[in-house]
What we know:
The protein is of the alpha+beta class. It contains 16 helices and 37 strands. Mean pLDDT is about 80; it is low at about 35-45.
Amino acid sequence: MTIREDIRNVAIVAHVDHGKTTLVDAMLWQSGAFSDHDTVESRGERVMDSGDLEREKGITILAKNTAVHYRGPSAQKLGLPEGITINVIDTPGHADFGGEVERALSMVDGVLLLVDAAEGPLPQTRFVLRKALESQLPVVVVVNKVDRPDQRIEEVVEETMDLLLSIAEDLQNEGREVDVDGLLEVPVLYASAKLGKSSLEQPAVGEVPTSGLEPLFETLLHRIPGPSYDEDAPLQAHVTNLDASPFLGRIALLRIHNGELHKGQNVGWAHADGSLTSVKITELLRTEGLDRVPAQTAKAGDIVAVAGIPDITIGESLVDLEDPRPLPLITVDEPAISMTIGTNTSPMAGREKNTKVTARQVKDRLDRELVGNVSLRVLPTERPDAWEVQGRGELALAILVEQMRREGFELTVGKPQVVTRVIDGVKCEPMEHMTIDVPEEYMGEVTQLLAARKGRMESIANHGSGWVRLEFLVPARGLIGFRTRFLTETRGTGIASSYAAGYEPWQGTIISRNTGSLVADRAGQATPYAMINLQERGTFLVQPGSQVYEGQVVGENSRNEDMDVNLTREKKQTNMRAASADSYEGLNTPRTLTLEESLEFAAEDECVEVTPNAVRIRKNVLSTQDRFKIAARARRESK
């Protein structure tokens, strides 16, 4: 096998919010990817987070690549004065977007593992690291945010090494090959990505590394090998991502494993079903910084984009027509959470301008999402205007609904459910390994909260800083609606994250909500007079003056039962002058729920109405009389 020394393909993996995108920013700035007149103010921070949702939430949702052209001292030492191209893949930190991580790791020859100097390895750290070791990729550990006042660098390095060896042991027990000796020699760097500083030596407490990112570049070049290829092998290129251009149509991002690719070349397109089609590469693009520029040729090891193949999908291959050797399809973990997405069936449907309300438009949009999202599945339901969408987690599905809402769709979204399996004749459900960091005084409330959701405590650790780390094994359905209660119980201070931990037999009934709903019993405008008289019953979710309809959930009942209320009642007019004018200062401020909070809040017999301008919770059966009949029938059957 021949190795290319002028290129490196590396993925940056870490738990969410440990600084991946910020480090890519620093690498781009220090490698000269931006022009002299560019500033952080003009370019913005986290330039790789291109989507509106990514910038708003501060998380990476889609894996994206950039090319860093490095011409520093380490490149000169390797005898490459023209520099080395480092293709960097920025990956999501959430396990819900695991399909993006798996695609990214199929493109690279090594990974850069970021760990927060205070938080240490967290569940998604284990998730992405396991994927990397399964692919037998070399690892470089970077302890980031060493300038945090609560940093504990030595313990974090020990925890990271323990994690590496623990994952290696798990993989060996499963019969997979792991280079344990290589893991014992993993290099560790210390960095502050925000300041663009790094060092091979551990800085003193309260200090930051003094040099730039040169130690990081040097370690990358020596630790992560260049792409290897067979000089005699025919063309083999793997499609790992898709993009679109109004001028070029569908663009396929691919890694060339063997052979060469030329603009205008006729190649074989190996379909997922095994068939082969001849296609022409109309445009060949390579990445420079954040931009794609035209190229005439690309060699083995390059990550390039091609146009001219309108229906190509992720996981398929481009091969030599005379000697086709397709690469294996990309495999992703099975979905664990599902929800029903359909057209808006509420009385408010179609009242907003320029919205998309038909079943055909919703189905076309879901089909388009399937093209680029390999971890998503869309299944038909009994209704022709609703579909079951399965994904890796609640957040991933909520992001899809939020994107569709911003595109002008009106939807009815069901409460998230778990995807069960039958293993050896036993009904099983997905489990999650959850890590929680909370102040000591809230440990009891959190333990009680998870015990009610069938959680089993695995370990507890007190670092002596006033915070406790708890680890639980809990059913995935027990975490639906958990986050809101968790933040309430910990007064917003708790940090919780989890990753998939296989399947176990069905754990029994879980009560997710101890409160009922206040349900409007007629359509009309919510009046302050009615809300003041009813606010002792619970908390409202609608504003005074807003339109409501029969069956809409307008509040949370403090008791564990639903209550039908008349929110449109007005004060009777009389000829008698009142001693004082009506005062509405006593009306408590209603809660405003986001889309994610609404999905968590909804009960089993409720769903969420989503429009571009509103998110409403409603009953599946709107009629008060019909709901009463269904409840009466259920009581009779239970006797």
